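Final report, results section. Input specification for complex C-07:
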Amino acid sequence: MDAQRRLLLKGMVVGGLSGPGLIGSGMSLANDPAKSAMHAESTKPILALVNDRAEYSAFIQGVQAADHSGSLQLHDTSLGLDFLLTLQRHVQDARGEYIVGLVDDACGTLIVELARAAGARVYWLGQHAVSLDRSHHQLLSSQMADGCAASLIQQLVVHGASCDLDRQSAGRGIQSSRLTQNLCGVADRDRGQWAVDLGHGLASLGRTVIPAAPRMDAGLMPATGHFISFAFEI
Amino acid sequence: MGEQKFDVLPRGVNQQAFLKAVEAFRKLLGDENVLTKPEQLIAYMKIMMPVDEAEHAPSAALTATTVEQIQAIVKICNEYRIPIWTISTGRNFGYGSAAPHHRGQIILDLKKMNKILHVDPELCTALVEPGVTYQQLYDYLQAHDLPLMLSMPAPSAIAGPLGNTMDRGVGYTPYGEHFLMQCGMEVVLANGEVLRTGMGGVKGDNSWQVFKWGYGPTIDGLFTQSNYGICTKMGFWLMPRPPVYKPFSIKFDSEDDIADIVEVLRPLRIAQIIPNALVIANALWEAGGANVRRTQYYEGQGVTPDDVIERICADKGIGQWNVYAALYGTREQVAVNWQIVTDAIKALGKGAIITEEEAGDTEPFKYRAKLMQGIPNLQEFGLYNWRGGGGSMWFAPVSQARGSETSKQMRLAKKILNKYGLDYVGEFIVGWRDMHHVIDVLCDRSDPAEFKAAYACFQELLDEFERQGYAVYRVNTAFMERVAQSYGPVKRRVEHAIKRALDPNNILAPGKSGIDLETFKG
Ligand SMILES: Cc1cc2nc3c(=O)[nH]c(=O)nc-3n(C[C@H](O)[C@H](O)[C@H](O)COP(=O)(O)OP(=O)(O)OC[C@H]3O[C@@H](n4cnc5c(N)ncnc54)[C@H](O)[C@@H]3O)c2cc1C
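Structure output:
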């Protein structure tokens, strides 16, 4: 286990798995009982999916920091057939759960398809390409994820990273909105902040106003590369 | 339910008429099978072509469970002039995914019609509904201990035989040309009648799944890659599982070897020494299958430089070209054919043969060996991580199985792709006498410049290949009209004459393969 991942797992309780048991590491994340004044929706359990790599830690930090009183579980994803068939059974059988995630393109393509086949309500699909000097975000979302989109956009502006964001909002005639920002000389920590904000926003699904996410923990690796994000309800 | 306002409407249909149609669908199917809310439709909009999602946004999606429901659906569609785009398992990645041909079409999703109706272990046939996946069939064969083998495309576990065959897809076993192995279809026509092809119309017949041709014109092919009907059942042949299966790979170190590879393999393939739809994959395709990401080797923009590709090959034990083939049969048959294959490669003087024992647990050998044996897996999705960014279109020109042709096509494709900063990620799937030259045009959809470049690149690929006398066998929904033009005006007029006769209201998948009564000006 590398240092990044150790940092990520610190404070998490490895818990039992629901249903037939998802493959990979499963962790129930302890929630802060102090965060109790919540949106009604947030009592639903959340399953957060990420690839098993250090750059996903910032996203998990964000998910974990969200105000959420339901159970929160984290699972690694992979291209392995066992994992995907187990996830398929889970999305078909489980009810009343949010599944959010930030994963690579291959896993993301498959997970979104499983969601469609299971008749899940998909609130958010994001495509992210992030390099050290610029990020591209392409979002397709419904009203339920308006708060998340607004918070991601605001945080991208506040933290000053160069980015292009293109959002198609389904539900109002598929409206498009764009953000382009050119800034240089941004600190590493700010470059990685988008993933914390995204995790925080997706785990706060249904809220129209989402408080600012915490700053990315020092020592975490900024997420660079290509990613798919999603949020759906089964 | 209060009056709903719809964001997306079918071409030429107003809110009021659409609402009436939706109400009729709800009455027929129940609310839970009529999807109109954005969050119910977003997953159908995840396309991989570099065009806006809005261009392929459905107005609604329906799920049906019986043939009678489908008959009633087409009746409503005729009444309100609602176009429907049918999908079975809906995993048409790189060809349009589950999204409709154009904005506003209703998706008819047949995923819930997922019964395996019959498997005959003696005659080695199957009859399935549209929602059956290869994984489901595979599990069925395993559970019933049936010594039969499936042929499946690479997204095997989640794709399905009916949808794949309707789009004339391919697999990697000796039964890899799937439409060739199809036998008997049941089709709901636009007027609601149910047609059974081949022997299926004969009362009391039991040879529907064993004799393809029936009597008079054979019409199964008319329903594939077309919009003349909704297929609700399909029969196909299964291969008996052989006592001995011997997969192998042959690694070639130079890109220039492609012509020699084809020349040495063609006679073996035509003579059925190598009986399966063997594959010749280039280095970058292999890299994707071996979970390599470009950024692990190269952080620059544009085309991956040759020296980087060479480094990946060296690190991962990949060739510039990699043949995957297999032998099937009794121990004696396989031994004889193995001798012929190894002698041929020896005589060629290049190419390193790798057996299953030598490859061990390594990818991509492992997943290729599974595909050639009809065992589902999803390893080839690693291609999507090679470059990343969610953009993929298959450019799949047909080529003669002739060395000079394949090398000409490869060079032409590479030149055009590289001009737009994109990589050549290609393989040749060797058919009986043809090759499907399948190129994955991978791009980053979230990068506006690459998005535009990939679209222009695809256009140029189609144009340039056409100029040289080549055309693709299948294409994504954004380019269907363009590709139809390559096949000439007479074919198009015939196709539209048939469409007018069978579906005068143009309700079934207008636009599929360029067939659309509203836009055709022939
Ligand atoms: C990594 C990767 C590798 C791939 N490898 C292969 C490969 O080896 N071989 C290959 O063929 N493809 C391949 N594909 C492309 C594609 O994913 C498969 O062809 C897949 O089988 C198609 O999806 P499906 O089976 O779910 O069919 P569907 O998506 O359900 O159907 C395909 C099309 O057929 C028509 N259709 C479907 N059902 C009906 C019906 N009931 N009535 C009328 N028309 C209908 C529709 O036009 C539909 O769009 C690959 C894709 C990826 C991502």
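Chain B has a mean pLDDT of 97. The CA atoms of residues 414 and 424 of chain B lie 5 Å apart. This concludes the modelling results for the funded period.
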